[in-house]
Input
Amino acid sequence: MSINISTLLESRTACEKADAVDPLGNWRENFYLPQGLIYLDGNSLGPMPNKALEHLEQTIKNEWSEELINSWKNAGWWELSQTLGEMIAPVVGAASGQLIVSDSTSLNLYKTVHAALGMSHGRNVVVSEADSFPTDLYILEGIISSQQNIQRRLVGKDGDSLDELLDENVAVVTLSHVNYRSGELLPIEELVKKTHEAGALFVLDTCHSAGVLSVELDRWGVDFAVGCTYKYLNGGPGSPAYLYVAKRHQQSAVNPLSGWWGHARPFAFEKDFKAAEGILKFQTGTQPILSLRGLQAGLEIAKVADLNMVRKKSQCLTQLFLELVEKRYGNHGVTLHSPNDPEKRGSQVALHYANGFPVIQALIARKIIADFRAPGIMRFGFAPLYLRYTDVWDAAEALHEVLKTEEWREERFQQKHQVT
Ligand SMILES: Cc1ncc(COP(=O)(O)O)c(C=O)c1O
Output
């Protein structure tokens, strides 16, 4: 089906027609979506897959309650990080044996960047991006402060491009596939190539791309990767992250957080650490089984979704939203903070508006959920597996009304919260 955005711009009825023939339309039934809610925040926390309840109920009622500790072996708890890693592998273009699901993205970034540095043969510079998600920068700071003579260079601060910052001292480059604020999508294959030509290793953060666009870790030659599972993989609040180590590095890479789950013989309870073979050495300690089980349903969906179709629809949804905001309604002083070219955009649209915070609160009061990132960025995430073209229409119309009537000025929308 090819979608003509100009036709959709004309009327809500045209959007209804597009929904009626949308080949991904039925996937929405896999999710619990509260009545009347338009959810544009799947780039932060995906909605609950209906099956998640079943998996959790089974785990709590049968495995935890009845079987107790036997479930470590009888219900596959011990191998669950690996089992789920194998489910994510095809979603991020990785062959078997290179992924586990464990810990958070922050922790996994620490493990992988540290491991990559350890393989750097005397090089001492880590390159990242000034506009990275803060945890990525903080983790680098932590690594630098705990090691001697490691330096950080940032694209956007110490130079304008990766090319400017690469030289014979660079050990590791770590970048996000899609920027968490602007939604800018980086050409990772090309950047990995440049990194390798400069003799460095590449660590990729796929938090904003895994599950919503094509990620080809093996084909692109990525060395290490990490990613959230609670956004487009719909794993639930705080669901554990994934960690990828390319097969070719598994022998030499060292996990700095060497815990008993990464030991070659955990139940021998030996006094000295001896790393497990393969990806398992990147495990550390006991994993949150309930959270892992909560993630399973999201991965069952992601594993069979056609990512080419997902990407195509995502580009239509973001483009429709942009054009509705800019062309149909007049932008009311809102400016685009995302790339204009859909090929360079992830699955979100970022709009800048100085009073963006109360605008988002006013939308939330109208049951249109988006979020705000200071200063002035309103983020709208478009997850193709459960969003409809009519949702995009309604959201753009509501944004227009909030801006036109200046409803956002109401006192109740000014109150700041811990979470924005
Ligand atoms: C690009 C990116 N990296 C890392 C994180 C945070 O990871 P975590 O809090 O799960 O450690 C986020 C969270 O939104 C993110 O967007």
